[in-house]
Amino acid sequence: MAIGIVIVSHVAEIAAGLKRLVKEVAADVPITTAGGTDDGGVGTSFEKIMKAFEENPAETILAFYDLGSAKMNLEMAMEMTEKEVKLYDTAMIESCYTAAALAQAGVELDAIDQQLKPLKVK
């Protein structure tokens, strides 16, 4: 089962920067991003999230986000995709990095979930 990652941030540069960081430990894991609004502003875009899901070749997507409204758009997009999407309410940078490194090493999804539990946002 191939695992991919989608990063959603209110700022395009944050999403791109996190992808750049994560690729250092997970060169083979497909990572797509949805950063900022459709007009380049600060915020999130349902359309950009759907595009990130579609462009990611993995059938199972691990989704990470920065702030609450990103979660709302992610949840709407999850209802519209055929892919299995796991949404993580965790510290975005740390959990995305950890998940990607584990996916690169071929770790199963259940074990990735266990590793991310301590990073859950309270």
TrEMBL record:
EC number: 2.7.1.121
Function field: Component of the dihydroxyacetone kinase complex, which is responsible for the phosphoenolpyruvate (PEP)-dependent phosphorylation of dihydroxyacetone. DhaM serves as the phosphoryl donor. Is phosphorylated by phosphoenolpyruvate in an EI- and HPr-dependent reaction, and a phosphorelay system on histidine residues finally leads to phosphoryl transfer to DhaL and dihydroxyacetone.
Catalyzed reaction equations: dihydroxyacetone + phosphoenolpyruvate = dihydroxyacetone phosphate + pyruvate
Ranges of residues in domain PTS EIIA type-4: 2-122
Species of the source: Vagococcus elongatus
Protein known as: phosphoenolpyruvate--glycerone phosphotransferase
Keywords: Transferase
Single GO cellular component term: membrane
Entry's Gene Ontology BP terms: glycerol catabolic process; phosphoenolpyruvate-dependent sugar phosphotransferase system
Keyword Signal carried by entry: no
Gene Ontology MF: a single term: phosphoenolpyruvate-glycerone phosphotransferase activity
Organism superkingdom: Bacteria
Subunit structure: Homodimer. The dihydroxyacetone kinase complex is composed of a homodimer of DhaM, a homodimer of DhaK and the subunit DhaL.
Keyword Transferase appears in the UniProt entry: yes
A UniProt-annotated Pfam family: EIIA-man
